[in-house]
From TrEMBL:
Its main location: cytoplasm. This is Phosphoinositide phospholipase C. The gene is Plcd4_0. Residues 92-127, 128-163 form the EF-hand domain. One of its GO terms (biological process) is intracellular signal transduction. Residues 576-705 form the C2 domain.
Length: 724
């Protein structure tokens, strides 16, 4: 067994067995702060890190040998790698059954008597009549031993999870009630799922993919079990599977895209005393974030450190951030450009020595810093040489630095001059004051040091090409003097005022220039503002605190879950026109067809999770709320009644209807809550997606936890209709 090192400070190591479904990935080598801190003691080939979904801390391990480490790493990866859906569906179901069996089997004898089954039902959110439960128990007890074991418990589970609403739908299209012929399946796909292209080929594919019986496959028919597996699959999901791939045009100028963006990326807690960690960058990048923030400050021996200035947050070396970017910034699905917001006067970012791929001696950054991918100096890795309005396609594998662009040497040495520094995201501009203080100190040093800083400043400035930071002095001033390669940063309060007073001008501005929005400095708890109102006027870089779960991050994940989760989403045509008349406060200003009607029948729920920290034996009373986010006229929400004491298979059969004026900007959020008549409802699960990604028909919604991770097999079953 490997040696367990000190865990991530955010959480304790698992004190009880954890399911393999809780494991997100396995990292080899010194890819955590803990393992980096003991790098001299343990070689990288013996080290690995198990990363869990959600907020559970990482588990850092050291094996006795490199061979043993590989056994662990390869074995875990085999267990967690994606498989075919039919196998995954069966595995999830089996794993779920086994986990519940082990929880309910109090005496650990591998059997379950009726009393233990009753306790299990409570644990599974089921409040069932005792006579009915006993009847299901006796039907499954084939050995008549008075206990359930092995396959008998599986039979009990299958009886418990019988989906009457799905069976009824199946029989509606099946002539004999036992199977769907190829033509009957085609009828269902066309009439209900609105699949009008290549329907016969699709029906054949679904039978081959989801029909568990080889005999039925050979006859080109679909059984009730195969029909259920299809409805629970990605093809049966509410999210259009074609939009999960990179499907949008990536040859438009950068300003024509919404870009997934993080604020103070290094923080994984609050803004005052929170922990700074490279995990913040890793988590954001794996979530599809394409705009990261790096706050650079002088550290010991001149080495720059990353932390939130003028606060008590912990610090991480700048070189570790750069190394992390080299490993994670351009994973396979994330080859599109990465925007790096470097906060801090660039001329004091000093790294001693010369050359080296993030090791050895450095003289300055970036000219002497090597590409972390080993492909030459970083200054050639940063975006250079294309047009002033480059496209994501042209800038693949490039890092774009957002920062101050030095026009004259005097500006570098004497202070800000006419250009505003790239201050940190504080409303009071604390970093601007710190920059002026440091500039004053710099002027007191000798000419040799001054010359070194001149070279350093100009070198970093030369890398700021497409995201030159400029102050915002109004839309008229910007249109007259600014260029597409420039960007302005606005606080959320400033942006709201502009939206309220000059909505159309804001949309036009964002059709040709980048705008970055950041949270108020008053949000010391790392809370978030709603990004929707900023997207409504076309703001591209809407920075959020990724470490804080909630509706705001649900919207962010919902918007950017499409297009291959690449972090770029193309804005609608009327927001890419510099002469557009669109104003989010007046939906009629949008060119195009009139409003559409979205009709959602909320049918049922499946195996909903218990509320965190609930009392033992407590069963939830679930309700479903559907929320619409978009332009002000489209903001709406409706909810179903609550179902008392049934989180296992609640039935609502309620219809909710919404009118949406600007569907191109609308996001739909499905929320399940545990009703409480005396206090605020408790969160159970949610799923958010852009309206453009909705598939009509009978669909399953696979719920996510509060922090956006999957919680299989929890889902909702709905029917969707969209009409003009």
């Amino acid at each position: 067994c490997p040696v367990v090192l000190v865990p991530d400070r955010q959480a304790s190591p698992p004190s009880a067995p954890v399911s393999i479904s809780d494991v997100e990935t396995v990292r080899e080598g010194h890819q955590s702060e803990v393992l980096q801190s003991v790098a001299e003691e343990f070689p990288p080939e013996r080290c690995f890190t198990i990363v869990f979904y959600g907020r559970r801390g990482n588990l850092d391990l050291v094996a006795g040998s490199a061979e043993e480490a590989q056994c662990w790493v390869q074995g875990l990866r085999q267990l967690i790698e994606p498989r075919s859906f039919s196998l995954t569906f069966a595995l999830v179901s089996r794993t779920w059954i086994r986990d519940w069996f082990q929880k309910a089997d109090k005496n650990k004898d591998g059997r379950m008597n009726f009393k233990e089954v009753q306790r299990l039902l409570k644990m599974m959110n089921v409040d069932m009549n005792e006579d009915h439960a006993l009847r299901l128990f006796q039907d499954a007890d084939k050995s008549e031993s008075g206990t359930l074991e092995g396959e008998e418990f599986v039979l009990f589970y299958k009886a418990l999870t019988q989906r009457e609403e799905v069976l009824s739908l199946f029989q509606e299209f099946s002539e004999d009630g036992k199977k769907l012929t190829l033509l009957e399946l085609v009828d269902f796909l066309r009439e209900e799922q609105l699949e009008n292209e290549g329907t016969e080929e699709l029906a054949m594919e679904l039978i081959d993919k989801y029909e568990p019986s080889e005999t039925a496959q050979a006859r080109h028919v679909l059984s009730a079990d195969g029909f259920l597996m299809y409805l629970c699959s990605l093809e049966g999901s509410i999210f259009n599977p074609q939009h999960r791939a990179l499907w949008q045009d990536m040859s438009q100028p950068l300003c024509h895209y919404f870009i997934s963006s993080s604020h103070n990326t290094y923080l994984i807690e609050d803004q005052i005393r929170g922990h700074s960690s490279i995990e913040g960058y890793i988590r954001a990048l794996k979530r599809g974030c394409r705009c990261l923030e790096v706050d650079c400050w002088d550290g010991p021996n001149g080495e720059p450190m990353v932390y939130h200035g003028h606060t008590f947050t912990s610090k991480i070396p700048f070189r570790e951030v750069v190394s992390t970017l080299g490993k994670y910034a351009f994973k396979v699905r994330h080859t599109l450009p990465q925007v790096l917001v470097v906060v801090g006067g660039p001329w004091w970012v000093r790294i001693h020595g010369s050359g080296g791929a993030l090791e050895g001696d450095w003289s300055c950054w970036p000219p002497a810093v090597q590409d972390p991918r080993g492909q030459g100096p970083w200054r050639h890795w940063v975006a250079q040489g294309a047009s002033l309005s480059p496209t994501p396609q042209e800038l693949k594998h490039k890092i774009l630095l957002k920062g101050k662009k030095i026009g004259r040497l005097e500006d570098t040495l004497d202070g800000p001059g006419d250009e505003a520094p790239d201050v940190s995201d504080d409303d009071n501009g604390a970093e601007a004051e710190e920059e002026r203080r440091r500039a004053k100190v710099r002027t007191q040093h000798g000419s040799a040091l001054q010359k070194d800083k001149e070279t350093l400043a100009q070198a970093l400035s030369d890398c700021v090409i497409y995201c030159k930071n400029v102050p915002f002095r109004g839309f008229h001033e910007a249109r007259s003097h600014s260029r597409p390669s420039e960007i302005s940063s606005l606080s959320e309060a400033k942006a709201r005022k502009l939206i309220r007073d000059e909505g159309n001008e804001f949309v036009r501005h964002n059709a040709w220039q980048l705008t970055r929005i950041y949270p108020s400095g008053m949000r010391t708890d790392s809370s978030n503002y709603s990004p929707q109102e900023m997207w409504n006027v076309g703001c591209q870089i809407v920075a959020l605190n990724f470490q804080t779960a909630g509706m705001e991050m649900d919207l962010c994940d919902g918007l950017f879950s499409q297009n291959g989760s690449c972090g770029y989403v193309l804005k609608p045509p009327f927001m890419r026109d510099e002469e557009t008349l669109f104003n989010p406060s007046d939906p009629s200003s949008r060119e195009g067809p009139g409003p559409i009607t979205l009709t959602i029948q909320v049918i049922s729920g499946q195996q909903l999770p218990k509320v965190a920290n609930s009392k033992e034996g407590a069963i939830i009373d679930p309700l479903v709320r559907v929320e619409i986010y978009g332009v002000p006229a489209d903001q709406a929400h409706q909810e179903t009644k609550y179902i008392e004491n049934n989180g296992f298979n609640p039935r609502w059969d309620e219809t909710l209807q919404f009118q949406i004026h600007v569907p191109e900007l609308a996001l739909i959020r499905f929320v399940v809550e545990d009703y409480d008549k005396t206090s605020r409802n408790d969160f159970v699960g949610q799923f958010t997606l852009a309206f453009a990604n909705i598939k009509p028909g009978y669909r399953h919604i696979h719920l996510l936890s509060k922090d956006g991770t999957s919680i299989p097999p929890s889902s909702l079953f709905v029917h969707i209709r969209i009409t003009e």
